[in-house]
Amino acid sequence: MEKTRVFKNGGSLAVRLPKKYSLPVGDVMIDEKDGMLVITPLDRNGWPSDLEAMFPVIGELEQPDRLADSKPVEI
């Protein structure tokens, strides 16, 4: 466990992360579990980057074939 600092950044609070806890630059999800803050990096689609580890069956699902120029169908 390491000591770090919480500080104000504009109207928000920020936490300085030590280098060994570095995250990819981008969006993260923050949650509180049992009084602890959990920060999870999100991928480019806005999903947790470890989603397959959380739900292993996702890796077994077939990806639908989609044409690049396909258009949504109005119903």
Give descriptors for this structure.
single chain; 75 residues; mainly beta; two-stranded antiparallel sheet; 5% helix; elongated
List the topology elements.
Layout: E1 6-9, E2 12-15, E3 28-33, E4 36-41, H1 51-54
Antiparallel strand pairs: 1-2, 3-4
Helix content percent band? under 10%
For the biggest β-sheet, the strand order reads 1-2
Low-confidence stretches: none
Number of helical stretches of at least 4 residues: 1
Estimate the mean pLDDT confidence: 79
What is the H-and-E element order? EEEEH
Report on the biggest sheet: 2 strands, antiparallel
Based on DSSP secondary structure assignment, what is the total number of beta strands? Answer: 4
How would you sum up the global shape?
elongated
Q: Measure the end-to-end span.
A: 55 Å
SS-based class? mainly beta
Cα-atom Rg, whole angstroms? Answer: 18 Å
Query: How much strand content do the residues show?
Result: 25-35%
